[in-house]
Amino acid sequence: MKKIAIIGVTTSAGRELLNMLEENGFAADNIFAVETDSPLGTQISYGEDVDMDVYNLKDFDFASAEIAVFMTTPELTKHYVPRALAKGARVIDGTGAYALEAEVPLIICGLNDEQINDNAKVVALPSPQVTQILLPLKNVAAKNKIKRMVINTYMAVSLYGKEAMDELFNQTRKIFMNEPLVDDENIFHKQIAFNVLPQVGEFIGDETKYEWAMNVEIKKILDPNIKIHANCAFVPAFIGIGAFVNVECARAVDVDDVRNIMRETKGVVVFDKHVDCGYVSLNDAQSESDVYVSRLRQDVSVNNGFSFWCAADDLRAGTALNAYNILQLYLNRKN
């Protein structure tokens, strides 16, 4: 059995990937749990009965692992990936550090994993919102050429990790206790509890980092000629991403045909009842591995358009599952 190193096991996404490996019967002996500045003797639970030793990233010998999955920060990933490659490990980047490099395949398993070959020593995962938007469109795009997309995402604070989730919790508690929030505005620099913030990432010109990245990632994966306008906002939810997506095609498209195509797409569940509560919310999608599609409609503002709502667990469906599926592809190789 090939050995796997998970770097960043205490991050939300790293922890979710460990959970997925345990759920699918991976033996703890075949996994190295690695974390930054991990003191000697640190352990992390693996299922209900196993505690795994956590290795310090600074001292970890990548020669002991055939595959290294990075779920830490982009900065640390950039620093340590060359060390992993020099020791012969293949790398899966779940941090976005290598996502936009031209020579690095940006992979959504089931959509473009044919790009993973022996020459691809590093593969990258796209942002979770890109994964959940493009999966439902996989077979639709194959039949109907997409010209333009307008995307509005509503993103839970888990995108920024545990510290952001703690900040939302502490702010919510303080508001109910009528206490000042000044000491709990470190991550968002504003009140996030009971609020919506139209900024996800730092500004790059008129766009924020995540709006810009969505544009580049979708073009890299699907089609460089697609025109994209993205808007990202944080909502006061702990886990999950919801997105309204408007799609304009090159020729006439029927929303009922789109609905049937999406229903046949692996990893996508269409729950689209045009009645009160006949849709999937962020809360409904938590801890689920599928992407849920609702509110499918013809977009009558353009000639050949449709729109839909999608919701998914950004940690599980948007990140950990994609990393797990890529791992499976590597593990099933003969060499």
Determine the oligomeric state from the structure.
Answer: single chain
The CATH architecture term of the largest domain is 2-Layer Sandwich
Number of structural domains: 2
Question: What is the highest CATH level, the class of the largest domain?
Answer: Alpha Beta
| Rg, Å, rounded | 20 Å
Low-confidence stretches: none
| Global structural class | alpha/beta
User: What is the 3D form?
Assistant: globular
CATH domain fold name of the largest domain: Dihydrodipicolinate Reductase, domain 2
Fraction of residues in β-strands: 15-25%
**N-to-C series of helices and strands:** EHEEEEHEEHEHEEHEEHEHEEH
What strand line-up does the widest sheet have?
3-4-2-1-5-6-7
What can you tell me about this protein's structure?
This protein is α/β, with parallel strands linked by helices and 335 residues long. It folds into two domains: 4-125 and 319-331, Rossmann fold, CATH 3.40.50; 130-314, Dihydrodipicolinate Reductase, domain 2, CATH 3.30.360. The chain has helices at 12-23, 74-86, 128-143, 162-176, 209-221, 255-263, 282-285, 316-331, and strands spanning 4-7, 31-35, 43-46, 50-56, 67-70, 90-93, 122-124, 146-155, 203-204, 207-208, 227-234, 241-249, 268-270, 291-299, 305-312. The strands form three sheets. A seven-stranded mixed beta sheet has the order 3-4-2-1-5-6-7, sandwiched between helices. The chain is globular, with a radius of gyration of 20 Å. The model has no long low-confidence stretch (mean pLDDT 94).
